[in-house]
Amino acid sequence: MIKAIKASLAVTRRQVKSSLAVTRRQTNDAANLAPVVVTGSSGYIGSFVVAELLSRGYIVHAPVRGSSTNPNKIAHLQALPNSENLKIFDGGDLTLAGSFDSAMNGAGAVIHTAAEVVLGKSQSIITASVEGTNNVLKSVDKAGINRFVQTSSVAAIQKYNVPPNHIFTENDWNDWSSVEKGDAYGVAKTQAEQIVHAHFADDEDRSSIAVNPGVVIGPVLSKAHTKASAIFLRDCIYGNKVMNFPCTFVDVRDVAIGHVNALEKLPEFKGRRFVLVNDEKCMPQGGVELGPVAARLFPGHKFDVKPQYPESVMKILRPLSRIPLLGGHIMDEYQRVAQSTPIQFSNKAAREELGVDFRSLDVTVKEGIESIVDQGFAKLK
């Protein structure tokens, strides 16, 4: 497993643009800076952020719930190159105030990737997101940390009350979603990001920045990661039914680079946000369209991906969902609109200002599937 992880990282490391090299020199040697805390550090995005920080010489504090009693949760982190600069803390429960205190003690920056991805129409999704964000910020304040990078989402940007050809940028905010429409997650991500921006806005000595990824796929570092958003690739291998809502993908390694580059741009880019998506257009059928890509990249193997919501079924359900009283039990407004509305994003700011050179979808799918198979998490058919 260690060999596979190191090989994966070695093959896929990107050179950062020369402008970022200047920024890095301005920060002096990363190893001499105060440690960086990565919340959600054992998670999919968080693990790759940890790997990226370690590769640049940072000392990393990683709060992981239950790590003292379940070493399997952190084995992939301890196998990373430069893991001697990684310190694990048992903690990081978003629902528990003070759970991040020990990890943040003595740190100089936080990259906050921890979050629960729960879809639906429950107010509790929003409440949990807001409370979790506030709990992290309380620990940040207590530790006197002055740089904060937040993992937000394109869900805090995209909305469905715009012209069909609208291209979304960092200037857009999701003011469409609501619990009643069925998109509590979109509300939760929007409110959490706004809370963070407001928290640091009036303090000239402290700064925050947000990164807003699309659907994150690519290589994995643990089996648990195949159950996160990388499940799209695992389901391609298995031929499972996948969510066929329109979406735009991005490589997890580019997301990690975007986070660390954003950190190195503070305080210059205080209050900014950056869309992280690859260069491909939105895929109208989402994960279903990864199947043909995988089949082309792995000739001789079968990737029989099936849509969770076939169009033949959707043609019947959409009009039925508009029937008063009954319709909401069939399909909510978010499901009806989102399933049939491709969303286009611009990654220009991330490319030109953060220096992220996004991998192609082919590279992401190929190396993602290879990573899953090589580590024994699935077998090609």
Automatic annotation (TrEMBL):
Membrane-spanning intervals of the chain: none
Protein name, UniProt field: NAD-dependent epimerase/dehydratase domain-containing protein
Pfam families per record: Epimerase
Organism encoding this protein: Triparma strigata
UniProtKB keywords: Oxidoreductase
Annotated ranges, domain NAD-dependent epimerase/dehydratase: 36-268
Family: Belongs to the NAD(P)-dependent epimerase/dehydratase family. Dihydroflavonol-4-reductase subfamily.
Gene Ontology MF terms in the entry: oxidoreductase activity, acting on the CH-OH group of donors, NAD or NADP as acceptor
